[in-house]
């Protein structure tokens, strides 16, 4: 066995052990709980909930990998996107804003 093929098999095994953190079923569950239905990916509440899920995952990753600056940048961008959506929702419908902030346990 060559070194290249051995590295490839190690890499494949590593990827299989990681798995996907955000599966289709997880997304549908988030949208069903916070949106208007399991296929409602367009509502602000659903998107905010999905961003929150992703932010939590990236935060845990960064606790273990402090020097992963690409992930850190992605996290900052996601937090900004969520903040923009929250600001939009606050202007459009304050009751929906208060409900999603309370439901997700976000700071105001």
From TrEMBL:
Recorded name of the encoding gene: rpsO
Complexes and interactors: Part of the 30S ribosomal subunit. Forms a bridge to the 50S subunit in the 70S ribosome, contacting the 23S rRNA.
Protein name: Small ribosomal subunit protein uS15
One Pfam family matching this protein: Ribosomal_S15
CDD domains tied to this protein: Ribosomal_S15p_S13e
Function summary: One of the primary rRNA binding proteins, it binds directly to 16S rRNA where it helps nucleate assembly of the platform of the 30S subunit by binding and bridging several RNA helices of the 16S rRNA. Forms an intersubunit bridge (bridge B4) with the 23S rRNA of the 50S subunit in the ribosome.
Gene Ontology biological process terms, A to Z: translation
Organism from which the protein derives: Aquimarina spongiae
One GO MF term attached to the UniProt entry: structural constituent of ribosome
GO cellular component: cytosolic small ribosomal subunit
Organism placement in taxonomy: Bacteria, Pseudomonadati, Bacteroidota, Flavobacteriia, Flavobacteriales
Alphabetical list of SMART domains matching this protein: Ribosomal_S15 (SM01387)
Keywords, in A-Z order: Ribonucleoprotein, Ribosomal protein, RNA-binding, rRNA-binding
PANTHER family noted in UniProt: RIBOSOMAL PROTEIN S15, BACTERIAL AND ORGANELLAR, SMALL RIBOSOMAL SUBUNIT PROTEIN US15M
Protein family per UniProt: Belongs to the universal ribosomal protein uS15 family.
């Amino acid at each position: 066995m060559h070194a290249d093929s051995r590295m490839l098999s190690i890499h494949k095994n590593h990827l299989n052990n990681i798995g996907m953190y955000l599966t289709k079923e997880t997304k549908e569950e988030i949208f069903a709980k916070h949106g208007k239905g399991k296929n409602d990916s367009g509502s602000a509440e659903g998107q905010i909930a999905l961003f929150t899920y992703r932010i939590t995952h990236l935060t845990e990753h960064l606790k273990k990998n402090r020097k992963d600056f690409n992930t850190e940048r992605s996290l900052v961008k996601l937090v900004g996107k969520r903040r923009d959506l929250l600001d939009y929702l606050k202007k459009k419908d304050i009751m929906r804003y208060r409900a999603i902030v309370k439901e997700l346990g976000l700071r105001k």
